[in-house]
């Protein structure tokens, strides 16, 4: 279908929210104080690599041709326009062109030894293949399995970390906001002293599972920080700078990250998530067998979203998963109604003046927590003027390199306090961009909430007036009701939108978040709510002790208090009767106005002159500012 006309107005701003996960941080309307003047055009010592560059271009063309052929038979293109800042010749650069991009393209476009007929994927003779019973770890084990995060990745040894005196307490991987690998947050982390295992007299009857994709390369755009941009600027200035001391390694360093797609570790995260869900909740498949049906899982068309879902499926169902479930791949592109990518039909979410509220907060906070680091690092990088934003980018570089290539020398450059500062910068960003501090958070989360209510009540969505898609949601095969297991994949921004829309107000208790200090014991932590492969369990329970079906919300294995939701009692295990939960969510749906939130002509002033802590815009007729 053709996107509606109103999209033309912002189609002209390719760098404005072109991607849902603008890696902290999104394009602002213009350069701020920290952004250096535009660099001079790239200079390349032509003689050094003119020939390899040509050879590469030829290879790239062949590769493109192969891709076109492949796509003609119906593949999904990368949804990001990805205007690579790094031309295809970059892979031939090596030291001494420090800061350059290094790319290795695998597989080769037409490998000389490819002989598919000699390597059939099925040859019979599989041996004995009986299966066993479904696991139910969530109910059968004496304790719930804890996920510690990132077994394949390497952190600097405590002695390498700057002033790493509190090494035991200091877990670097948990201080990266949305770039942290997901981990079990621990019993009581969100204020309910209970684990994810069903309470004494209860058993699990169903699960609605919402998860994020795994670790990825940086997104293509950033308005604050952005590793590719920084490495590009270093490269442009290659002849002029020299790292010494802690930064001496940069003289030989090359930029090795791609864009947008899953990293090998990200792939593992989703595979592991699938395995762990099967171990904990495999017994829910018995309902499908009883009903002579298979599950439907959902993801979106974007490369990393599809790859995440399929890796999850390999973990959950094993290889080959064909025939065991059906994968719905919804279109993530401008103008397509999609509850898992609501920003694609919500113009106000993409108008910089309304959505880029987060940047000034991050900029202000970075200026505070990184001032020592800037003073420390600048003398060690002779001939290159570092800004606070650059130093912030070095922290991003640590996280991105680690989840992509397993280790990063940049991680050693900062103190624990500076990592706490980085983590909080991420909280600020997402609070104001995607959660309780954003005027367009609730309205974007509401579509998924409508679907959740439909599934919980076994009743189709009555009116399609948000991001819901009638073609999908009204089709009982595409969007089945009354199932025991649902799995949906999405982005961190959408997980935060949904948390906001659901009225999980315990996470809003410290808002509006201040830019000049970290509130003590804050409850809103993006590394706990929306890290790579973050996952939300909507757990359905039947209890001997409590009448009627119960629901719990469990984020990264932490039970969430539901006491902010009208009608939900203060329960020691975090349970709420499904009826009360649904009634409150219907009330929230009734109060949420997509037309106004996404298309209304409201304005809000920048910065703290206007605050929301419910993720809503000003009401119709309300004058602010
Ligand atoms: C590290 O510790 C030393 C000695 O305690 C102190 O002088 C220095 O300022 C600290 N550096 C940073 C970056 O915190
Ligand atoms: C910190 O917050 C958690 C929940 O978010 C709460 O359970 C705990 O009591 C708080 N601790 C302090 C010292 O306030
Ligand atoms: C870095 O970003 C700035 C501001 O958006 C842009 O002007 C500049 O061209 C970028 N530099 C590189 C090397 O990508
Ligand atoms: C970089 O600085 C170091 C230490 O001052 C010096 O020994 C080295 O020659 C410098 N390298 C370049 C390329 O200027
Ligand atoms: C609903 O989703 C389907 C499949 O992704 C898509 O083809 C269709 O265009 C969507 N409808 C709207 C109104 O966006
Ligand atoms: C797509 O969303 C718009 C806005 O909520 C709605 O008017 C329209 O009916 C939806 N289309 C479908 C096919 O669901
Ligand atoms: C799944 O089956 C169990 C056991 O028969 C039952 O208690 C539960 O209600 C079923 N769940 C759904 C969603 O039908
Ligand atoms: C949402 O949360 C606010 C603040 O806790 C509360 O006053 C309101 O009743 C809640 N609304 C619903 C429908 O749960
Ligand atoms: C959808 O329409 C219903 C009925 O008119 C209304 O109560 C609700 O607020 C609307 N929902 C959204 C998300 O606009
Ligand atoms: C918004 O929140 C900030 C930080 O808590 C506060 O300083 C400011 O006064 C608030 N603004 C309004 C209009 O309430």
From TrEMBL:
- Molecular function GO terms recorded: acid phosphatase activity
Top-rank taxon of the source lineage equals Eukaryota
Alphabetical list of Pfam families matching this protein: His_Phos_2
Q: Does the keyword Membrane apply?
A: yes
For bias kind Pro residues, which ranges apply?
28-42
Enumerate composition-biased segments (Basic and acidic residues). 1-20
Q: Where is this region: Disordered?
A: 1-44, 605-625
Cite the entry's keywords alphabetically: Hydrolase, Membrane, Transmembrane, Transmembrane helix
Q: Write out the coiled-coil annotation as residue ranges.
A: none
Instruction: Give the SUPFAM superfamilies listed for this entry.
Output: Phosphoglycerate mutase-like (SSF53254)
Note the InterPro entries from the entry: Acid_Pase_AS, His_Pase_clade-2, His_PPase_superfam
Task: Output the CDD domains linked to this UniProt entry.
Answer: HP_HAP_like
Where is the chain membrane-spanning?
Answer: 49-70
Q: What is this protein called?
A: Phytase
């Amino acid at each position: 279908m053709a996107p509606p006309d109103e999209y033309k107005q912002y189609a002209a701003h390719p760098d404005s929210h072109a991607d849902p996960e603008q890696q902290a941080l999104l394009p602002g309307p213009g350069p701020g104080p920290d952004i250096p003047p535009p660099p001079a055009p790239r200079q390349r010592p032509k003689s050094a690599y003119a020939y390899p560059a040509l050879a590469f271009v030829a290879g790239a063309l062949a590769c493109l041709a192969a891709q076109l052929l492949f796509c003609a038979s119906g593949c999904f293109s990368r949804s990001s326009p990805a205007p690579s800042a790094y031309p295809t010749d970059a892979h031939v650069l090596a030291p001494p062109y420090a800061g350059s991009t290094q790319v290795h393209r695998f597989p080769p476009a037409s490998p000389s030894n490819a002989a598919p007929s000699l390597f059939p994927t099925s040859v019979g003779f599989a041996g004995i293949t009986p299966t066993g019973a479904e696991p139910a770890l969530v109910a059968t084990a004496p304790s719930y399995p804890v996920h510690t995060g990132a077994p394949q990745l390497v952190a600097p040894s405590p002695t390498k970390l700057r002033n790493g005196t509190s090494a035991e307490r200091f877990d670097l991987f948990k201080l990266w906001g949305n770039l942290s690998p997901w981990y079990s947050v621990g019993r009581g982390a969100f204020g309910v002293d209970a684990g994810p295992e069903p309470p004494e007299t209860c058993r699990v009857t169903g699960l609605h599972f919402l998860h994020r994709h795994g670790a990825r390369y940086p997104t293509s755009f950033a308005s604050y920080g952005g590793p590719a941009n920084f490495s590009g600027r270093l490269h442009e200035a290659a002849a002029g700078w020299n790292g010494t001391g802690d930064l001496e390694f940069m003289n030989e360093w090359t930029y090795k990250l791609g864009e947008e797609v899953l990293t090998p570790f990200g792939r593992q995260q989703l595979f592991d998530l699938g395995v762990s869900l099967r171990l904990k909740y495999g017994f829910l498949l018995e309902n499908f067998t009883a009903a002579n049906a298979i599950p439907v899982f959902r993801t979106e068309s974007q490369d990393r979203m599809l790859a995440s879902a399929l890796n999850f499926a390999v973990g959950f169902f094993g290889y080959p998963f064909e025939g065991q479930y059906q994968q719905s791949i919804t279109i993530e592109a401008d103008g397509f109604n999609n509850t898992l990518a609501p920003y694609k039909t919500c113009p106000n979410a993409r108008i910089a003046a309304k959505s880029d509220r987060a940047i000034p907060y991050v900029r202000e906070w970075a200026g505070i927590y990184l001032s020592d680091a800037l003073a420390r690092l600048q003398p060690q990088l002779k001939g290159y003027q570092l800004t606070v934003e650059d130093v912030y980018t070095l922290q991003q570089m640590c996280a991105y390199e680690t989840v992509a290539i397993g280790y990063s020398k940049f991680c050693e450059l900062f103190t624990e306090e500076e990592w706490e500062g980085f983590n909080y910068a991420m909280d600020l960003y997402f609070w104001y961009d995607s959660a309780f501090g954003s005027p367009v958070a609730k309205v974007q989360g509401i579509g998924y909430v409508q679907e959740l209510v439909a599934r919980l009540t076994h009743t189709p969505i009555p009116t399609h007036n948000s991001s819901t898609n009638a073609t999908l949601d009204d089709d009982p095969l595409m969007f089945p009701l009354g199932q025991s297991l649902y799995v949906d994949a999405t982005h961190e921004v959408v997980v935060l939108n949904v948390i906001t829309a659901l009225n999980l107000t315990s996470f809003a208790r410290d808002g509006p978040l201040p830019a000049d200090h970290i509130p003590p014991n804050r409850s809103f932590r993006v590394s706990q709510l929306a890290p790579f492969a973050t996952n939300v369990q909507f757990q359905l329970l039947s209890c001997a002790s409590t009448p009627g079906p119960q629901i719990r919300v469990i984020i990264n294995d932490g039970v969430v208090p539901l006491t902010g939701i009208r009608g939900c009692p203060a329960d020691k295990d975090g349970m709420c009767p499904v009826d009360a939960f649904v009634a409150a969510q219907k009330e929230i749906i009734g109060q949420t106005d997509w037309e106004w939130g996404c298309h209304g002509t409201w304005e809000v002033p920048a910065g703290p002159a206007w605050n929301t802590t419910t993720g809503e815009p000003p009401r119709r007729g309300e004058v602010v500012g």
